[in-house]
């Protein structure tokens, strides 16, 4: 089960739905709140197996100060092993390993605060971050992987409505993460299969052109890319509030279904539709490592 950018849109019935569904693992792509310790505690107490990839909003003040605030340290302590930054979690029921990428990503060409990353993880460039993601993948027990990140990789997007396309400022271009693209190439070179990459951050509703909808499900070669960032993730339906989830189903390391689900206030799936995947051209240029300049 996947929960997109939360931005504090979370109700008791979200917990009811997860408890009823009993997924083998629930994956949060982050932006829980704005460096919100108490809300992080609320999510940490949801009584289902889970992993979290904290987002840029979860480290908002730490980026301003270029060091980890006490609040961020408390959030990381509360989540403990459930925070998947540069780490791996096994899901034997599905035959997959979940590999966590770099937390707190803002997307785009800059890490924003190499100081913060150095303090928390000993990385300060895209290259060293990519190496640390690959290190986590090497520890995976399965050959079939799901990568969990806050923002997606460079190499999938050109236009604002593309899955990780830039829709703000001067719109257009690719707002994907360079370290993640580098890591994906190296992980595949190791003979591991990246079955799915899950990352949000780039919200469904575009800033420019205002209100246009982003493509959030695409396939390139044998990898499914999923952007679950429907914000706000709670809407008012005819029969009350409903909240958004993406449900993925797995058998022996292969994904058998991806569904968009709106759960109702009784914690039951009210609308459930297969995710509309867009096939990306196989002629797409692979991300070129030699083009990389260090920041
Ligand atoms: Fe967000
Ligand atoms: Fe974000």
When the domains are counted, the total is: 1
Based on helices, strands and strand pairing, what is the structural class? alpha/beta
Largest beta sheet: strand ordering: 4-5-6-7-9-8-14
Query: What is the overall shape?
Result: globular
What does the model show?
The protein has 295 residues and is α/β, with parallel strands linked by helices. It has one domain (2-280): Purple Acid Phosphatase, chain A, domain 2. It has seven helices and 14 strands. It has helices spanning 12-21, 37-44, 60-65, 70-79, 114-121, 126-138, 178-189, and strands spanning 2-3, 26-28, 50-52, 88-91, 96-100, 144-148, 193-198, 217-220, 223-226, 234-237, 240-251, 254-264, 269-274, 278-279. Strands 4-5-6-7-9-8-14 form a seven-stranded mixed beta sheet, with helices on one face. The protein has a four-stranded antiparallel beta sheet with strand order 10-11-12-13. A three-stranded parallel beta sheet has the order 1-2-3, with no helix packed on it. Strand 1, helix 1 and strand 2 (26-28) form a beta-alpha-beta unit. Helix 2 runs parallel beside helix 4. The chain is globular. Bound molecules: fe (ii) ion (2 copies). One fe (ii) ion is lined by residues 5, 7, 31, 55, 201, 203, 229.
